[in-house]
Amino acid sequence: MKRLFNNRFLFAMMAISCLIFTGCETKKLSEEQENSIAAYSAHVLLQHSQGFDKKLVKNAEVTEAPVRQEVKATAAPTKAPVASQNQSTDNGETAADPNATPAPKEVDINAIYNISGVDIKYINYMVGRAYPKESNEYQLTAQKGDKLLVMEFDLKNQSGTTKKINLMKSGITYKLSLDGEEYSPTIVILENGGLNYLKTKLKAGGTERAILSFEVPDASAKFKEGSLKIAKNNSVSTITLK
Questions:
Q1: Which of 4, 2, 9 has the alpha carbon at shortest distance from 17?
Q2: With a threshold of 0.85, does the pTM exceed it?
């Protein structure tokens, strides 16, 4: 029955098309209008034909399958541990830095000067406005508000020959500490230049005195703790002021 209806409908539509395109005394259609009518007629015929639902596919129903992208997990870059200067050992002790400067070695004063056949000995210190306190010749004096702290040393030539001593370019350093405050020796205008700039000739068996002079404030002259460090390279000799 359905097939008979479709055949009759198809025949009717073909008759209509013939009347449209070959009709007499009708207004001539444009090409665009004729194409529209033909397309509509074909669509109507197709709707009433068998298997129409299988022949049309709507655009909305056509979808592309999602493309899966494989994401590879990458491990985060690890930083190499930074070596510290002092690293702890397994037993909890701190390992010494091999690049660190070693602590100065405490030595005898003669090991600092290292003058063959000559013995250097610290004698005493004194504090005052001038040195020496009484002199008919040259005298060192402190500025107003300061005092001189003068340390005395004796050099003795224990050899049988005259010794030429020149400490002007010895590289030896001197640092006086009074209750935590540090001071450097002044230039002593004496005949032998003082111990820090000593230049002299010491006869066999002879002894000569040399001094280190420091100019310090009046308040520092009344110190409770004082010491002198004489150093060269990585060696130091400490003298405690008593």
A1: 9
A2: no
CA distance 178 to 183: 8
Residue 155's closest CA among 195, 128, 182? 195
One-letter amino acid for residue 55 of the chain:
K
Instruction: Give the end-to-end CA distance of the chain in Å, rounded to a whole number.
Output: 138
Q: Are 161 and 149 in contact (CB under 8 A)?
A: no
Total Cβ atoms within 10 A of residue 110: 13
The set of residues, in sequence order, having a beta carbon less than 8 Å from that of 100 and lying 6+ positions away, is 85
DSSP per-residue codes, 194-210: -GGG-EEEE-TT-EEEE
- Mean pLDDT of the chain, nearest integer: 78
Q: How far is Cα 88 from Cα 100, in angstroms, rounded to an integer?
A: 16
Q: What is the mean pLDDT of residues 203-214?
A: 97
Give dist(CA 147, CA 214) in Å, integer.
8
Residue 34 banded pLDDT, cuts 50, 70, 90? low
Task: Quote the CA–CA distance of 15 and 41 in Å, as a whole number.
Answer: 12
Six-digit token pair at 197?
A: 């700039």
H helices of 27-134, in order, are: 31-47, 52-55, 109-113
User: For 23, how many CA atoms within 13 A lie in the half-sphere containing its CB?
Assistant: 11
* Long-range contacts formed by 207-211: CB under 8 A, 24+ apart: 207/154, 207/155, 207/156, 207/157, 208/154, 208/155, 209/123, 209/152, 209/153, 209/154, 209/155, 210/152, 210/153, 210/154, 210/155, 211/131, 211/150, 211/151, 211/152, 211/153
- For the beta carbon of residue 130, count every other beta carbon within 10 angstroms: 14
